[in-house]
User: Which sequence fits this backbone?
């Protein structure tokens, strides 16, 4: 008996080893799912389609029943049902365990499909290339497929389809079209064919058209796009004519109009081009139609316009870069945004490490790959990587890369410069960018390092640990400044090939100011000069037109001013090779420019009597030139005309003016002016015309009138010849005569109205000769002028005005007389002689109660009075209702009082100005303008530290009023309270007791350092249960309700403590389970029953039933936390070792009690030779009845293996079958 048991044991070990070591034999059926028997034809089922393995053996089943003889890899199914195939190995031992398809393939009877019919449109003979529409007759069944055969080697699918037939030739060609209906793998009979007749078009194919660029153009990157195709046609003009081609219609773009080309313009020797260039990247379909006698042939050529590719992409948070888990440094998801250009691009992406090698720890996610346009990377490692993009099209390829930093923080540091001379650089968020890289900045982690030139210092309270320091660089040289900081993932200085942000600060030496040998020069207008400064070798100079500011007009070593027309001072600074400019005053260089001689004119043309000397020729005072040496004059004359030859004039000809001699003929004169070395200037030309003499006459009508009164006509004696001109003078009887106004060319003259004494005489003119009559004087009494009075006034009612003063009048006939007038009606009417002494030059009004207007009249001779301007003395009522009131009589120290309100005043002119005043002395003395805004109706005092008095003055024109006084007292602030402890500790969800002491008063507790709501009022404050560390603040309040200037902080540290009792577990009855409490230093487990020690961290439990254990853990601070774990206990199975299946109704099956608690159990039974005679899985729903393959087994001992689940140890033993 020992030997068979040993063999059984070895066999079971072998079986278990084999099952666990090899995969099941492959088993699948094609087609899968459901297949259909169509029109009685069988369905071919194939097992493991495409697999050839002689070791595999097949057995087909229908509806779970073995099909005798069906042992091939294929099977023709003619009957409906569910077909399966069992596949096993022919080898011994088997190469793979037996396997049966589950589910199999269901075979059903397919549909009975009716033979279809169809129509087409248009009918009749159609041209090659024209679309014809085909449609099934009858309703469209969306479940059916309609498969078309067009008879030209092409097929189609659909209820309604379009198809164009192609045929080249002079005759017609027919095509037979048919269709079948398909559904569920079955097909109907083919429809009756229908014939389509096609008229041939010209033989014109795409290969007959060529392009100089082979239909593909590459544009250099960043170049503008303007492409014109250059198309040739292989069909000659003669061949086109023979083929009946009359022309070509070309549509260069789909939305463009067709253009007609004659065959003589489109052939192997003549090309056509698009008039409007292709201006964007893309594919342009060019449609060309060969026009035939009946039908046309259209081809479409694709013209590709591409551009040299330009790689480009960007990565920007938050969309382009984000953490997979916001609380974890990695993984980080990076999504580049593509910006590559060029058209028709393909992509190749890669990620490189710092050594330029493919990086590890990076994967493509979201169904993207390294050839996606927009890949999505998942970086699982921290560090710096290079994302590389290669874009390629038919024009070439281009590569770009971009650094991406994962997890670590990064600093970008910038600074202006280089700097000239000592400088202080203030680093701020404008030149320092701290990138936390999706993380959080670690406070206090900033580290600034300065190397290179010595002497740099941190200033203005900043240090090497400041986030934004200010650094002074005092010496010439180069400084290296770097900074690093940390986030929760690491420090910016830890990143390979990057390190901390670094910048070079260069401080250059400031050059000395330039030296110019002379301070200036003098030149004539339109001349130039050169300025040549000197200074250290290698320097250049900046030339300005201003002493400060402005932009340099040149940067050079020697500067030519160019032609100048005005005096100019240039200013020069030194510019060192490193770009530093000298400081201080710029070096001046004055260029004095003598302007061109101007204002050289002479006057005037004259007519003189023959034998008379002309009048003096006057020349203007010239301007320009070097007038420090004076001007040189030369007068010239000509008797040949204004453009004739000029000679030196006779007589004194070198003066500014010139007196010509007696002339007998017409003569022209001009003047030359010279100055220093500047060129001569020639004046205008004047002409003196010489004419014969004439005779004069006499006039009468001398009289005296007032100014602006009409004058009686003046009478002249009769004349026989000449032109008359009356002339007048307001100077004297012998000088100042000019042509008289009004009509002045008649024998008599009417002067009209005159404003001053005037002398008249009559002239007779003939050519250049003139003779005058005697002089007649008209005396005019002058009007009074300069009659003004001062000044407008405003005053409060009942006040006497200031005296009114008048100017000293001019004109008139002495002595002058005065009359002052007044009006209470207005400035233009109601005037009467003023009260009191009103006939003097000035006037002193008496007190008035209403607004009054005054004016002064001046009388001269018998003429009407002359009135002055009007002055207004405005009378306003006194100011009233000037009161103030304050809502507070006392405030706390360093507190802004509430606004002091002022009443709305009345009186005055209705417009008011205010002045608030304050005094810290008393209610009656030492008032001064109050601080802050003190000119409004109301007033808000500033912070007060001592008792202060306030008052308001209201001003309206010349009226004013001072209010009563408001006093505000100042109370002292209490000192900040003292707390018993600045920091206390408590457990999670526990309270804390905080105690404050001080000089007295009350105490108020808050959650904020300033503001907020009062939590509690009192010296001892018990907080609510806390779940996190919290800082509370307490302030003192004295009897005046003044609050301490600061609050005292108390921090309550909350100990966050938890315990984990582990995962719930299921065990079999009688087994033990070790419980583990994670967290704490002391433990107490409940219930204690079934535990070996309820006070240890890892007690061993042996529960007899399902039990929930609760553990209470305590921290070192005494804080407690609880958790629970449930141990589910499944009863053990009860196995009997004998049964008697003898059909007596007792012990007919081998019962395993409680196995129903193990639904995944497996039961296997073997005979003594190792043959498996029974198996049940999952579970044991039908107990073993002692049979094998339906036959009773003999009396014997059998061996079982029971696996209750995948984790428990198998149960083995034997059972005896008794008959």
Assistant:
């Amino acid at each position: 008996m020992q030997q068979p048991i040993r063999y059984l044991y070895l066999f079971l070990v072998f079986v278990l080893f084999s099952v666990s070591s090899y995969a099941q034999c492959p088993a699948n059926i094609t087609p899968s799912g459901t297949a259909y028997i169509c029109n009685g034809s069988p369905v071919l089922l194939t097992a493991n389609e495409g697999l050839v393995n002689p070791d595999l053996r097949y057995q087909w089943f229908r509806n779970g029943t073995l099909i005798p003889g069906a042992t091939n890899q294929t099977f023709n199914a003619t009957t409906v049902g569910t077909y399966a195939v069992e596949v096993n190995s022919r080898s011994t031992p088997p190469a793979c365990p037996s396997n049966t398809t589950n589910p199999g393939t269901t075979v059903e009877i397919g549909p009975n499909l009716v033979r279809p019919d169809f129509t087409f449109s248009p009918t009749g003979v159609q041209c090659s290339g024209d679309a014809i529409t085909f449609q099934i007759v009858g309703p469209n069944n969306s479940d059916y497929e309609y498969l078309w055969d067009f008879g030209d080697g092409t097929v189609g699918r659909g209820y309604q389809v379009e198809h164009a037939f192609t045929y080249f030739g002079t005759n017609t060609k027919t095509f037979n079209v048919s269709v079948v209906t398909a559904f569920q793998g079955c097909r109907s009979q083919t429809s009756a064919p229908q014939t389509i007749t096609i008229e041939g078009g010209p033989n014109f194919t795409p290969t007959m058209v060529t392009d100089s660029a082979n239909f593909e153009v590459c544009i250099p990157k960043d170049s503008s796009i303007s492409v014109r195709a250059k198309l040739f046609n292989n069909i000659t003009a003669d061949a086109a004519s023979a083929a009946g081609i009359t022309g070509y219609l070309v549509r260069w773009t789909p939305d463009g109009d067709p253009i007609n080309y004659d065959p003589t313009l489109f052939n192997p020797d003549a090309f056509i081009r698009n008039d409007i260039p292709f201006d964007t990247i893309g594919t342009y379909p060019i449609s060309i139609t060969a026009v035939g006698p009946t039908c046309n042939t259209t081809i479409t050529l694709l013209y590709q316009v591409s551009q040299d590719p330009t790689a480009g992409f960007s990565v920007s948070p938050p969309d382009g870069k984000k953490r997979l888990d916001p609380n974890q440094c990695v993984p980080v998801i990076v999504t580049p945004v593509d910006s590559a250009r060029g058209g028709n691009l393909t992509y190749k992406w890669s990620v490189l490490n710092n050594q330029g090698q493919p990086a590890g720890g990076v994967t493509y996610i979201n169904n993207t790959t390294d050839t996606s346009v927009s890949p999505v990377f998942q970086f699982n490692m921290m560090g710096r990587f290079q994302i590389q993009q290669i874009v390629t099209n038919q024009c070439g390829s281009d590569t770009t890369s971009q650094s991406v930093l994962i997890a670590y923080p990064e600093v970008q540091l910038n600074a202006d410069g280089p700097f000239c001379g000592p400088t202080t650089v203030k680093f701020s968020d404008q030149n320092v960018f701290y990138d936390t890289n999706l993380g959080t900045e670690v406070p206090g982690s900033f580290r600034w390092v300065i190397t290179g030139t010595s002497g740099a210092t941190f200033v203005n309270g900043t240090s090497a640990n400041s986030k934004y320091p200010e650094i002074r660089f005092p010496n010439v040289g180069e400084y290296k400044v770097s900074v690093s900081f940390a986030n929760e993932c690491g420090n910016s200085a830890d990143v390979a090939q990057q390190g901390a942000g670094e910048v070079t600060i260069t401080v250059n030496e400031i050059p000395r100011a330039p030296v110019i040998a002379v301070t200036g020069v003098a030149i004539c207008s339109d001349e130039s000069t050169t300025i040549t400064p000197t200074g250290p070798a290698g320097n250049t100079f900046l030339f300005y037109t201003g002493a400060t500011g402005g932009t340099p007009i040149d940067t050079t070593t020697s500067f030519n001013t160019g032609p100048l027309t005005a005096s100019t001072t240039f200013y020069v600074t030194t510019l060192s090779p490193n770009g530093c400019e000298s400081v201080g005053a710029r070096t001046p260089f004055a260029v004095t420019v003598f302007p061109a001689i101007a204002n050289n004119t002479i006057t005037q043309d004259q007519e003189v009597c023959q034998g008379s000397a002309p009048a003096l020729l006057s020349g203007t005072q010239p301007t320009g030139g070097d007038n420090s040496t004076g001007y040189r004059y030369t007068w010239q004359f000509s008797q040949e005309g204004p453009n004739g030859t000029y000679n030196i004039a006779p007589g004194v000809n070198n003066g500014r003016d010139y007196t010509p001699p007696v002339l007998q003929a017409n003569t022209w004169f001009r003047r030359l002016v010279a100055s220093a070395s500047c060129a001569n200037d020639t004046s205008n030309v004047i002409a003196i015309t010489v004419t014969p003499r004439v005779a004069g006459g006499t006039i009468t009508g001398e009289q005296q009138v007032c100014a602006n009164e009409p004058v009686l006509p003046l009478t002249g004696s009769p004349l026989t010849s000449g032109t008359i001109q009356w002339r007048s003078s307001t100077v004297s009887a012998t000088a100042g005569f000019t042509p008289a106004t009004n009509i002045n060319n008649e024998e008599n003259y009417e002067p009209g109205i005159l404003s001053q004494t005037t002398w008249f005489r009559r002239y007779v003119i003939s050519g250049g000769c003139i003779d005058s009559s005697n002089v007649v004087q008209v005396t005019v009494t002058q009007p009074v002028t300069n009659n003004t009075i001062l000044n407008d006034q405003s005053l409060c009612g009942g006040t006497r005005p200031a005296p009114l003063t008048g100017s000293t009048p001019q004109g008139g006939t002495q002595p002058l007389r005065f009359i002052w007038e007044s009006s209470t009606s207005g400035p233009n009417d109601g005037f009467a002689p003023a009260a009191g002494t009103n006939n003097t030059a000035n006037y002193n009004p008496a007190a008035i109660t209403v607004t009054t207007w005054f004016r002064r009249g001046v009388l001269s001779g018998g003429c009407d009075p002359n009135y002055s301007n009007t002055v207004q003395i405005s009378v306003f009522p006194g100011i009233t209702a000037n009161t103030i009131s304050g809502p507070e009589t006392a405030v706390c120290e360093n507190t802004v009082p509430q606004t002091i309100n002022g009443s709305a005043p009345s009186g005055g002119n209705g417009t008011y100005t205010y002045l608030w005043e304050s005094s810290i002395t008393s209610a009656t003395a030492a008032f001064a303008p109050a601080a802050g805004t003190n000119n409004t109706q109301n007033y808000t005092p500033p912070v007060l530290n001592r008792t202060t008095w306030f008052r308001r003055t209201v001003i309206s024109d010349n009226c004013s009023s001072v209010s009563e006084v408001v006093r505000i007292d100042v109370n002292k602030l209490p000192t900040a309270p003292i707390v018993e402890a600045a920091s206390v500790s408590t457990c999670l969800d526990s309270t804390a007791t905080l105690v404050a002491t001080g000089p007295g008063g009350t105490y108020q507790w808050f959650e904020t350092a300033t503001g907020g709501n009062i939590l509690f009022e009192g010296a001892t404050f018990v907080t609510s249960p806390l779940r996190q560390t919290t800082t509370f603040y307490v302030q003192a309040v004295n009897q005046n309700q003044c609050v301490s200037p600061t609050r005292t902080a108390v921090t309550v540290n909350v100990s966050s403590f938890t315990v984990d009792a582990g995962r719930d577990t299921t065990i079999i009855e009688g087994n033990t389970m070790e419980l583990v409490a994670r967290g704490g230093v002391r433990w107490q487990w409940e219930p204690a029953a079934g535990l070996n020690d309820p006070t240890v961290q890892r007690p061993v439990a042996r529960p007899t039933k399902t039990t929930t254990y609760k553990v209470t853990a305590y921290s070192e601070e005494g804080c407690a936390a609880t958790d629970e774990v449930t141990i589910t206990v499944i009863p053990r199975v009860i196995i009997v070792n004998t049964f008697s299946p003898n059909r007596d109704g007792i012990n007919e099956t081998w019962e395993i009690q409680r196995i129903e608690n193990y639904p995944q159990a497996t039961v296997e039974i073997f005979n003594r030779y190792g043959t498996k005679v029974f198996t049940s899985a999952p579970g044991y729903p039908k107990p073993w009845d002692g049979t094998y393959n339906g036959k009773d087994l003999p009396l014997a001992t059998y061996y079982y293996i029971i696996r209750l689940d995948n984790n428990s140890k198998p149960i083995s033993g034997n059972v005896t079958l008794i008959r």
